[in-house]
Design goal:
Radius of gyration of chain A: 19 Å
Number of strands of chain A: 1
Strand content of chain A: under 5%
Number of strands of chain B: 5
Helix content of chain B: over 70%
Number of helices of chain B: 26
Distance between the termini of chain A: 39 Å
Largest sheet of chain A: none
Strand order of the largest sheet of chain B: 1-2
Largest sheet of chain B: 2 strands, antiparallel
Number of domains of chain A: 1
Oligomer: heterodimer
Strand content of chain B: under 5%
Shape of chain A: globular
Largest interface: A-B, 88 and 93 residues
Order of helices and strands of chain A: HHEHHHHHHHHH
């Protein structure tokens, strides 16, 4: 394990923790602009996090320790997720800890804790949110796994670092299976990050919300960590997508110096990705909750079709 | 003494404990506090001896009991030793728990229960040791009968008797299939020792028939579709430690039998054998998990989840058979390792969950999810230990349930190496189904835990529920610790599984895994796939600590307790109302019921707005029950009636039958 690798790992974690709220602010700003609203400042998420951390946290009388544990566990899971996705370099000490399948497991672990914490108080909104979140999760999780498998089959590996490395070195061909996987991944990312058309991060309307319903009872530092973890999740998903489908510009084992250029490249890719996300959120309307399973099943089927297409073209 | 003798000593010890209990039939204190802990010790000893025996060569013994001139051949090889470890681990924890669980006044007296329990354990151990068809079937039937009597412990309840009857019926249908299977395997040589069966080389048709019979016979015991219907009936009927043993250990003896016959006696087979097993396994997994998400009774939910897990194990076996048929030894070993790993992992977490329901049942007297809730506050020990089982059962890293799923999905990714393009196309679909099953299992587990332990108590009396007794906690902790340890340190266990795969498919993963140290699990090569549970846990813990550092040290926001907010509906948040407005078990399962509606036979009764006493009722049935079982039962009934026509009850009629038969026979002989 070289010093460069440890440095890259450290840099990645710091970048994720510090940059994730910025990405959120960027998307919010663009969304407001596209919707002809006056945009909030770019640094608004940091202000919100700071405000929440300073405030006192109100915990319900009947809350069990699980309720107070969940924000920390979720934050921990998302930090690890950001650490294992190769954003800047493929030479990461933590990369061998978890491959693509374990990454999906990691996201599921965070979701499970969040759902359990929301059910802890037994308020109607909390359990409803937990049920809806698990509903989204049980379809999004296999769909995500299948999109990752599409690239795994091409690269003959489930290790994220190796997947990214071989994707970057592949001669540029438009692989139809990747096209299917890309569309499926976009749908899954929208659903998993509670964006429109599946969920609206700006709403607190009781009957439509999913993610906000889970967080209803949280306040103060617990809420801050939850929000921060949600930003980290968006960051991690964006980075997985960019790393797998647009892998160029990420530093590799034999060229640690490329990390200097990797940061601006990543920033540029995220900036464009953020604008696209804001665009999707602007042009689409939120679906009824009953339509969400169909939407996600589409993603699942697309990813499976991607796998089949790959087999067909190979065989 | 060699290992096999020690194992026989343990078996004899268990039988002695059972007999000793007969002298104190109604002395719960003596039976529970003395005999069951001793049984647990014996279980531990069995596990330890068997673990040592995995690394040794095969050992044989002969027991001259039973019919004269027909001794019982016993053999201890890596495969049977592996399953003996599972039995030992399961028996140890369950006996510890039982020491605090069984109490008098519940049907069968505790002494008798103790006898049945230990005979059951001994029979399961002997099934894995048996080395001829005769000994195997005798032990197999002893196991079935002992468990039947255990299921009927509460025999005063009619539903329990019905469930036990169904169980006995299907167990015997399975036993007949196994008997026929051995009959085919011996190929007219008249010698039923496994050594002889192994030496017979049957033609493709007869081996396929033997395979089919084995799948039917062992599948009936394991709960593969369509012979799964007894599981959700028998498990809730039995006392919880018995459900734990049946689900966690007894189902695995069926997997053992399947492995023994298919891989050992038949030496694998054509690729379509694997496909059959894969299909059955997948159907069971999908059906089991979908049904488990909509259950409203906690032990039924877990029973369906067992069907799901057995299905995943069978899927792994099927994949291993396919790879083996194409001579891909390493990949076959990978799929087989996934299945064998799942055997132990499932034993650990499912025992934990079933024992947890036992503790809840004793504390509250309720098994209906609709009348439970909020137990994490009154029963913290049980709740937190069961949480480990729930996370492991959801297949989440870094616990034991994740590793078999990870290995199974890995082996799917290698199917591109298969020369058969049809299989190559099929396998991605199967992988997708496995991923879906894994995700749905998480849904079912969240429902189970959330409804039983979280939320507001749905009944007044739950507030006074007493936490589990120390013995019960010990049993739960044993399994929880096992699930954590197996999840964090899979590599040493791969060494053990390696010996079994070496025996069955001729290759193993230990070498590849060991090349990367004992903390990193990398079955083929580190650049293809790797997973390190310890680093994973370390990463999550470090991140969690970072969160704590920021939230608690960097900023020192105060903490205040207040009533729950619930979007400002303060009255709805009050405990009384919250208990009614939170999701019920039906509510939580409703989305799945809607999405997978074709799976179920649903009958609904919706209240109209004018009902003075509105009643909502929904009943979910297994389509197999009406589609296959009831018509079959009706057919058998009709056949019995037709045969009954012959029965006139008059001697003259019977004499006429004899006369007619004689005449008919004479005609045949003449011509």
């Amino acid at each position: 394990m070289s010093t460069a690798a440890i440095l890259a790992q450290f840099l990645e974690i710091v970048l994720a923790l510090a940059g994730a709220p910025l990405l959120l602010g960027w998307v919010d700003q663009w969304r407001a602009r596209l919707q002809n609203k006056s945009a909030p400042p770019l640094l608004q998420p940091y202000h919100v996090l700071h405000k929440l951390l300073v405030k006192e946290s109100v915990v319900a009388d009947s809350a069990s320790p699980l309720f107070r544990m969940a924000p920390y566990v979720k934050f921990g899971c998302m930090t690890l997720a950001c650490a294992i996705v190769p954003t800047l370099s493929t030479d990461l000490p933590l990369a061998s800890a978890a491959d693509a399948i374990a990454l999906v497991g990691l996201l599921a672990l965070a979701r499970t804790f969040l759902a359990l914490a929301a059910m802890d108080l037994g308020t109607a909104f909390g359990t409803m949110g937990a049920r809806r979140d698990m509903l989204v999760g049980f379809l999004a999780e296999p769909a995500l796994l299948m999109t990752l498998f599409c690239t795994s089959l091409i690269t003959h590996s489930t290790s994220l670092a190796n997947m990214v490395q071989s994707m970057a070195h592949r001669p540029f061909v438009l692989d139809p299976s990747l096209a299917f996987a890309g569309v499926a991944f976009t749908i899954v990312s929208l659903a998993e990050n509670t964006r429109i058309p599946v969920d609206n991060p700006a709403t607190h309307l009781e009957l439509t919300m999913i993610h906000e319903a889970l967080l209803l009872e949280y306040s103060g530092r617990h809420l801050a960590l939850m929000e921060w973890a949600a930003a980290l999740k968006l960051f991690a998903y964006s980075c997985i997508g960019l790393a797998l489908f647009l892998p160029w510009g990420i530093a590799e084992i034999d060229a640690p110096l490329a990390m200097i250029t990797a940061v601006p490249v990543l920033a540029a890719k995220l900036a464009v990705g953020g604008i696209l996300l804001a665009l999707i959120e602007t042009v689409s309307a939120k679906m009824r909750i009953f339509r969400v399973p169909e939407f996600l099943a589409t993603a699942f089927l697309l990813a499976v079709i991607g796998l089949l297409v790959h087999q067909l073209l190979q065989g | 003494m060699i290992h096999i003798d020690w194992i026989l000593v343990v078996v004899a010890g268990w039988l002695l404990l059972g007999v000793a209990a007969l002298f104190a039939l109604h002395d719960t204190q003596f039976v529970a506090r003395r005999l069951f802990p001793l049984g647990a010790l014996l279980g531990l000893a069995l596990g330890a001896v068997a673990l040592a025996a995995v690394f040794e060569g095969p050992q044989v013994a002969e027991l001259t009991i039973g019919l004269p001139g027909l001794p019982m051949h016993l053999r201890l090889d890596a495969l049977s030793a592996y399953f003996l470890v599972v039995i030992g681990v399961g028996a140890c924890g369950t006996s510890l728990f039982s020491a605090g669980y069984f109490r008098s006044g519940e049907g069968t007296p505790p002494g008798l229960l103790c006898l049945e329990y230990h005979v059951f354990l001994a029979a399961m151990a002997m099934v894995t040791l048996a080395d001829d068809g005769y000994a195997f079937l005798v032990m197999w039937e002893t196991m079935a009968l002992a468990s039947f009597f255990l299921v009927t412990a509460n025999h005063r309840v009619a539903a329990v008797r019905e469930a036990a009857y169904l169980y006995l019926l299907i167990a015997h249908v399975g036993a007949i299939a196994i008997l026929l299977c051995f009959g085919v395997l011996q190929a007219n040589s008249g010698d039923y020792t496994f050594a002889n069966l192994r030496a017979q080389h049957l033609g493709p048709v007869w081996s396929a028939i033997a395979f089919g019979l084995a799948v039917a016979g062992f599948g009936a015991k394991a709960g593969l579709v369509p012979l799964h219907v007894w599981l959700p009936e028998a498990h809730p009927a039995a006392p919880s430690p018995v459900s734990a043993l049946m689900s966690a250990v007894m189902l695995k003896t069926a997997i053992y039998g399947l492995l023994r016959v298919t891989f050992d006696l038949l030496h694998g087979g054509a690729w379509w054998w694997g496909l059959v097993l894969l299909g059955l396994g997948l159907a069971s997994a999908l059906l089991g998990v979908v049904f488990s998400t909509v259950q409203t009774e906690m032990k039924r939910l877990l029973a369906y989840s067992s069907i799901e897990n057995i299905g995943l194990i069978a899927t792994g076996l099927g994949l291993a058979l396919i790879f083996r048929a194409y001579g891909l030894g390493t990949l076959s070993a990978l799929a087989l390792t996934a299945a064998l790993f799942h055997v132990l992992a499932h034993c650990l977490f499912k025992s934990l969950l079933f024992l947890g329901t036992g503790a809840v049942l004793h504390a509250t007297g309720e098994r209906n999810l609709g009348k439970l809730g909020g137990l994490i506050r009154s029963m913290p020990w049980v709740a937190w230990l069961v949480l480990v089982g729930v996370l492991a059962g959801s297949g989440l890293p870094p616990l034991a349930g994740f590793i078999p799923e990870w290995l199974l999905l890995q082996s799917f990714l290698f199917t591109t190496d298969l020369p058969n393009p049809f299989l190559g196309m099929l396998i991605p679909l199967v992988a997708a189904a496995v991923a879906l099953v894994a995700a749905l299992a998480c849904y079912a587990m969240v429902k189970f835990y959330g409804v039983v332990f979280l939320g507001q108590p749905r009944e007044e009396k739950l507030l006074q529920a007493r936490d589990a007794a120390p013995w019960e906690r010990l049993g739960l902790a044993w399994f929880a610790l096992g699930a954590v340890a197996l999840g964090l340190f899979p590599v040493p266990w791969i060494d053990v599984v390696d010996k079994v795969t070496l025996q069955l498919v001729g290759s193993g993963l230990a070498q590849a895994v060991h090349a990367n140290g004992w903390l990193l699990l990398s079955p083929i090569a580190p650049e293809r796939a790797s997973y390190s549970p310890t680093a994973f846990l370390g990463g999550v813990t470090a991140g969690t600590l970072l969160g704590l550092l920021i939230g608690r040290r960097l900023y020192r926001g105060a903490l205040r307790r207040a009533p729950a907010w619930a979007c400002g509906h303060a009255e709805a948040a009050a405990a009384r109302l919250a208990a009614r407005t939170q999701d019920s078990a039906e509510g939580f399962g409703q989305p799945i019921r809607q999405i997978f509606e074709p799976f179920f036979r649903v009958t609904r009764h919706l209240p109209s707005p004018f009902d003075l006493q509105p009643r909502y009722e929904v009943r979910i049935e297994d389509r197999f029950w009406r589609g296959a079982y009831l018509p079959l039962a009706a057919l058998v009934d009709r056949m019995a009636r037709a045969v009954a026509l012959l029965q006139r009850g008059r001697i003259s009629v019977y004499l006429m039958y004899s006369f007619c038969t004689l005449v008919a026979l004479l005609l045949v002989v003449r011509s």
